[in-house]
Design goal:
Layout (H helix, E strand, L loop, with lengths): L11 E3 L5 E3 L3 H19 L5 H21 L13 H15 L15 H26 L5 H23 L10
Antiparallel strand pairs: 1-2
């Protein structure tokens, strides 16, 4: 099997149901931005913290489900789809990791050590993916759990950035106004 097919040379691509759409369609933009977030999360691993790496691997697998869900305009019941359990996993992890941290008293500047800064960057791309999915949902039906998942994932990535920085001895900086 070759990696290239030539089918996209005219600017169209296949959705999961084999319908053809423009590569500039809101659906492609949405799941393409999810793919970007997933690739960025891949640049974080390894963080130097096995538990964080395991969680990020789980998230990357979830994001493949998100992409499959978004790439399918007319899903069957057995097709990959974001489910409440995916969101619950993130919430449980946020709550557990938050116990390691000092309470937030102000906004913080994204950055810190290498892992922390990359996690903050991944958070911003995830927020962009969420905005793209919200825009898609204005014109086409989607699984609403995808928006919830991406919203919660950005919260997790924020928390992970803070945890990575705390474990690596990197101080958080507040903005000056």
């Amino acid at each position: 099997m070759t990696i290239y097919t030539g089918r996209g040379d005219e600017g169209d691509t296949d959705l999961r149901d084999m319908s053809r759409v423009s590569k500039a369609s809101p659906r492609i933009e949405a799941y393409g931005t999810v793919d970007e977030a997933n690739a960025l999360i891949g640049t974080v691993r390894p963080t130097g913290h096995d538990d964080l790496d395991d969680l990020l691997e789980t998230v990357q697998n979830h994001l493949h489900v998100v992409q499959a869900d978004l790439a399918n305009p007319d899903p069957d019941p057995d097709d990959p789809a974001v489910e409440p359990a995916h969101v619950e996993t993130l919430e449980e992890q946020i709550d557990a990791l938050d116990e390691e941290l000092e309470p937030l008293r102000s906004f913080i500047l994204p950055g810190g050590g290498e892992a922390g800064a990359r996690l903050h960057h991944a958070r911003t791309v995830t927020r962009r993916a969420e905005r793209r999915v919200v825009e898609l949902a204005r014109s086409e039906p989607i699984n609403e759990a995808v928006v919830t998942y991406l919203n919660r994932l950005s919260d997790l990535l924020f928390t992970l950035g803070r945890v990575a920085n705390a474990r690596d001895g990197e101080a958080e900086e507040s903005p000056s106004y």
